[in-house]
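Problem: given the chain below (684 residues), write out its structure.
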Amino acid sequence: MPRINSLEVKSSTSTLSSSSSSTSILRALSLAVAFGAVFLQFFINPFIPTPTPPNLRSSPTSPTRLVASDIFGCQSTSAAEKSVRSDIVCPRTGHEEIFLRERSLLSWSGEEALDVASPEKQSGKEASETGPPPSATKKPRAASHNPDVISPGSLTSSESISLFEYTSKITAQQTLDSGMSLVEKATEIAGELEYSPEQNDGRDMTMIPTYVTSVPNGTEKGVYLAVDLGGTNFRVCSVVLNGDTTFDLTQSKVAIPKALMVSDSHSLFSFLAKQVADFVETHHSDHFSEDPEHHLRLGFTFSFPVDQKAINKGYLIRWTKGFDIPDAIGKDVCALLQNEIDALGLPVKVAALVNDTVGTLMARSYTSPGKTGTLLGAIFGTGTNGAYVEKLDRITKMTSASAKDVGEYDTSTGEMVVNTEWGSFDNAVNVLPDSPYDRLLDQNSVNPGIQMFEKRVSGMFLGEILRNAILSMKQDVGLFATSTIAEDSVLNTPWSIDTSLLSYIEADSTEDFSVTKEQLQKDLGISASTISDDEARAAKILVHAIGKRSARLSAVPIAAIVIATGKLSPPAQAPIDDLGLKDLSLVGQGIEILRRAIGGRSPADLSADAPLPDIQDEEPIDIGVDGSVVEFYPGFEEYVREALRDVPEFGEKGEKRIRMGVAKDGSGVGAALIALVAKMQYSQ
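Solution.
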């Protein structure tokens, strides 16, 4: 995306490469061979067979195909839905194929651990020997919108407990029969939480256009405001941009009175406007006395579901986080705040509605070194999400003739930031690694069946995965058997283990695991003197597996976006259009070019001496990250990079091009920078 300077937005124009036609055809053939191989892999052996567990409660259903095409104007639909909606055509897009190729990072090694509850998988015996109860069956991996399939979270509490107890009972018997030690059992569970390059089908993404069409370059100057309504607190801050990639931040925070959270829109937004007025009077009164006609531009971070129709317009869909103000539903939240600001006579303009992940991208782009603009902003903290820069003509949700309810946006740059909402990737669990501990977590969550990617990656959930695994080992092999653990202890209380415990244990390098023992005593109430070295080692094995899996999964959307946007590819792409293939997906282009080449129909001679640029000679690919997990979890970034090196398109050279930098305060600094971008768009 073009980066803007302090005076103007640089227009982006499509430029044809000066590369020769022969070079283009050589590159096209390389693409064809790669995608041809992928094509053969998918359609000759597209699925890994999985045995059907006994007493499956669901009836046979039509296969469900999930597509990553919300951004391209299509919704994911099952085969049954397609039979009655024949008007919907969802061709594969470049993004779909990229996520398809990135399946290799989302699979298990060897036999699928999804079948851990199946007696055949557990012991090699026939199912009839152990015969699970009806409730103790493996949930099929299918889309939750299919009523004939058990969707994630559909089991009752008693059923889920029976499932867990049944699985534990089988595992315990096997452990006793085999004489498995604590460390061996922990290693086995760690294997269930591991995955290696192995292919499965399935993909599902939500992609939201943000109407943000420029990113800063670090030379901008000025004073901008930002406000952040993300929960029970309201934050107001001002950002002074110094024009040299640095800024000065001033902020204040106030708690939202609980009565206002369930009042009416006027009461809430007038309270917010009053906080803005107090802040401006305190910190910027001189600014206005110098120029009474000047209006400060404000970015509004509003962390509730909205239907955004412009960079400064979004209609509230619903409240969350304890708010319940019915008369605000369906109203433009920017207008609600602006009306109350105007009522106070405050010279402030609500210029932008902001998503904090987009703000992370903007904050990193302003502070990143060098000429390269930031491609991606990613959150790996309590939750996870990403926003990246996409070419506007690929966002058919915005640009196609069939696009509906599209608001105003600037087209001069030819690009727009897209909010992926990747926390909801693969809610059907078609490709994500799964285990009894993941399934139990999901069943006991407040939103079963959704945010399945986030539930394996983010800090909110890693502690609960560990708790479930420890309880399983406690029942199966007597982990912490000599310790007295109260019924109301942290270990027996769902959602009570903080991810910081995993960080301390992961960082423990002592030979006697003294740090691990101390932290287990501090956080779980288990006396350190009763914890054996093997028990501490087992806990550390579990922690390592959970944390490493989180990091490797985090690499998947990063890799997919980098590949999908062509950042690892040679810059000259225009000749593809010359071959009449621009309307095909990436895989379709590769297959068609390969077919033409084999049939002798290539429109130009190939040049054997047309070198492709070396990937290591390209500009760095800049990524802004934020969140406690990526910032503080030991070894997290290195595990991410290790996973990137496992992606064939990356390898070691491609991974070295990735430049990650912490971008703090996307909801504050980032929001102010989006207000800057909005001001530039208004000026045009």
